[in-house]
Amino acid sequence: MKAIAFVALLVYVLTPPLLAATPDRGEGVPDALVETFQGRNGTLFDGWPAPRCLLVITGELDGYIEPCGCTGKENQKGGLSRRQNFLRAVEAAGWPAVAVDLGGQVKRFGRQTEAKFHSIVDGLRAMRYAAVGFGPGDLRLPAEELVAAVAAIGDQQTPFVSANVGLLGIAANITPRFRVVEAGGLKIGVTSVLGDKEAERVRSGDVEVTAAAAALAEVAPQLAKAGCAHQVLLSWASADETKALAARYPQFDIVVTAGGADEPPRELPVLPGGARLVELGHKGMFTIAIGFFADAKNPLRSQRVPLDARWGESPDMITLLGTYQGKLESLGLAGLGLVPVRHPTGRRFAGSAACADCHAHAYEVWKNSAHAQALTTLEEQKPRRDGDPECLSCHVVGWAPQRFEPFEGGFAGMAATPHLAHQGCENCHGPAAAHTAVERGDVRASEVERDRLRRELVLTLATPEGKQKVVNNCLECHDLDNSPQFDFDEYWPQVEHGEK
Predict the structure, then answer these.
(1) What residue ranges define each of the domains in the chain, with the CATH number in brackets?
(2) Cβ atoms within 10 Å, residue 153
(3) What is the value of pTM for the model shown?
């Protein structure tokens, strides 16, 4: 029955023309969408009448273009795919919507981050975002990459706006300083700023950043003349700096700030000047929806929306993700600028099969575990992700999981290193090439040296310190991002492999 219900949900979300034809009695959510707006993380828009306009606010994606999915995507939140389906569900409800984004699409460096930024911007364009701001991570990308991704394409305007950030200079006007959009008969003005403290992190001669307050002094009067029913400030700054800007320019009734907790608050705080302060959480797991109503007593309502499994997957965004993964595969590890680094121990890797002769029981436990199929999991993803360093780092032997980079002698592809495929013994116990060479007799060593090599690979749960070391090893990959429901005590019996 659950499977049937989920298929029905996907039909609702992925066929907006049919849904839009569903009669809306003017009482809020059409009957056909009631199930869509329910889920294990709570019912959405409960008791709402139909708004005149719905402002959809996202941001701080931090590079999480899609949830990992290798431990069950149904347990994770976020991703452009679910975001697009939420916007489609809003459209299907017959609610005029305006989507804006605070910025912060990426936060790392390198060729993969550049490719990801381009793909994310393509996704924002496809979702018809009205306004997108800049985060400091975005602005640390090479200027040519930024300009290529941000600039208008043909007759399609750029979604980016900023009062105080100019690519190739403010006067170059690659991005407008504000934008006024109309939906549901309402004019909504939007601008964005990069906070002064955050601007200090941007060091590029091709990116001009002026003081946020001074920039708003120029933009605010122009917005005031535009006759907007609502004005939105996207402020990539600390909450304190954002509140100071809101107090100085009280014309903004919706003020979005960076930072804050991992999850946004359920209710929007009201600032002294009357503006609603919006926090978004991190990694794009939530969106904040604000409805505007023709109701003098209750003109505004807000809803925190978790981007969870209730939304299903959007074919358009899955195709976009496939294109991104294709870029990574074409570039290869060398093209992505990934140079293997020395392992802290200085040792090399042997592969899990090298452990089998002496550790037969442990090897059998490993062979029958999901760890032994870790790379296959990536190959079977749709789209496949076995060319993605951010995924490979936890699915093969010899990578640094939290840094997404290979160690010297680690997995370098199935053609070169098939023996290092999958999540193997040495990712926990350490590189064992020297140990296995001595045990096989390939290298002569004293008993003292042999015993030292053995001890270096031993992990134990017998002491609190030993158990914590094992737990920490697990958490390198089973972290909150990729394995949010991980519990060591529940998980360990599935892979326990002490010698018999």
Answers:
(1) 2-319 (3.60.21.10), 341-495 (no CATH)
(2) 10
(3) 0.88
